[in-house]
Amino acid sequence: MNKILFYVILILVFQFVGCNSNRSSLDNTHLGGCILIDPVAEIPSDIYQMTNIIETNEYEPFNKKLTVCGIILIGRDDISNDFMQKVGETIKEMFSPNGEYIDRELQKDLIRNMYKYKTVIPLFKGEDFSFTSSDEKLWDRTTRQNSICDIIMEGVPGQVTEVVEHILHFVTDIGMHYTFSDDWGISRSSTLYQVMQEAIDNQYYNVDQYSEIEDHEDRLRVLLQEYAYWLIYTSWDLRENYGPQEAEWSIYNSAELNEKLPGSYQLYNNVIPKVMTSPSIETLESFIN
């Protein structure tokens, strides 16, 4: 599916299903159409925990959840437990506290913020993220009570990228935004916005397709979350092995990023290695094999 078509549909699904939905009320509670403005959840004593898959009615119409490092994965019966657990393991590896450059206190701050602002990732089977009419009101309530900025689809082409990209969207939209607001905030005053503009001006990041997103704040959030993903994914040198080959981003590896956009690479180096690491090749390959 074309990425911009996907986002337009997704924004519609998030914001306009349910009889009681309206854009103005969402603006009062969520930044950029999806990020809770006020903290609403308690932080567990073990912030690094990865739970078992638990049956729940907290996130209807989804009926099962798995919590790991501040992120709650939710799914329906059509999502395999194996896939859900592998996504959880990927997140767990990203936030291993034992990485060579990890600053444990900074990492803990980031994870705590993802708990506080209820970071919830829905898992969908394939490209079917439709709801029955009876489920629409339940979904509307779930999106309003949580920070839900994207989804992860099981059983689609480019499964490694699908998983890593959309985990990173939630980490940067919520965790990085609240932990490092000056540098990584979803804001026109952040360093992330400044280096993104440089990439746009130098034609390394083509954002023409995103003009179809009508709401300005939604479009800003999508532009910044995509750019943050490309910075991290490219700096981890994952694109050459896992794609995508054709995209709005024209840089393929960390060396090229450092050469062409040193300010962006510096932004990555100043924070990301201190709070998370790339998942292992073994874990990434498990989505293919």
Which percent bin holds the helix content?
40-55%
Please state the structural category.
Answer: alpha/beta
Major sheet attributes: 5 strands, mixed
Strand content: 5-15%
Order of helices and strands: HHEEEEEHHEHEHHHHHHHH
The number of strands is 7
Mean pLDDT, nearest integer? 92
**Major beta sheet, strand line-up:** 3-4-5-6-7
Low-confidence stretches: 15-22
- Describe the global form: globular
Distance, first to last CA? 23 Å
Précis, in short:
It contains 13 helices and seven strands. By secondary structure, the protein is α/β, with parallel strands linked by helices. The strands form two sheets. It has a five-stranded mixed β-sheet with strand order 3-4-5-6-7.
Write up what this structure looks like.
This protein has helices at 3-16, 23-29, 81-94, 104-116, 133-145, 159-179, 181-184, 191-201, 216-235, 239-242, 254-260, 262-275, 281-285, and strands at residues 30-31, 35-36, 54-55, 64-68, 71-75, 119-125, 152-154. With 289 residues, the chain is of the alpha/beta class. The protein has a five-stranded mixed beta sheet with strand order 3-4-5-6-7. Strand 6, helix 5 and strand 7 (152-154) form a beta-alpha-beta unit. The longest helix has 21 residues, at 159-179.
